[in-house]
Amino acid sequence: MIYSPKVLKHFKNPHNQGVIKNADAIGQEGNPTCGDVMRIYLKVGEKKSGKAKTAKSEPFIKEIKFETLGCAAAIAVSSAMTDLAKGKTFKEAMRLTKDKIVKDLGGLPPVKVHCSMLGLDALHQAIKNYELKKR
Ligand code: FES
Prior knowledge:
Blueprint: H1 5-12, E1 25-30, E2 37-49, E3 56-68, H2 72-85, H3 90-94, H4 98-104, H5 116-134
Antiparallel strand pairs: 1-2, 2-3
The structure holds FE2/S2 (inorganic) cluster (FES).
C-alpha cells in the first residue's frame, strides 16, 4: 500500500493527538467496516461575526484533540482534520468534507478512504453534542 509523503508525515508525527481534560464536548464514532473507534475532544470559544452593530457570537473550536484505535490512515486523516478544524466556527467545521481532507493529504489508497470518515464523523458528533448540551 502506497501512502503519500504527507500521510506518512502526519502518521509518524500526529498533530493534536491526546485527550482534553474538562472538554466542552466529546464525539465518538466507530467504523463498522473495521471496528476501529475514534474520539474527538473540543474546547469551545465564542467569536463575534458580522458587522459591529449586528455582530453575533458564534461558537468556534478553540482546541481539538483526537484519540483513536484506528489504522495509520485514520491517524493521519485525524491529524490533518484537526489542523483544518482548529479555529473554525462550528458552521465552518460542519462544512469540512472527507474529499477536502483527503485532497489536503495528497490522496489515500482507495481501500483506505473509508478510514477518512472516522475523524470527521466524530467531530460532527462532538459539535452536535455541544449544541444539545447548550439547549
Ligand atoms: Fe479501521 Fe482504517 S482500517 S480506521
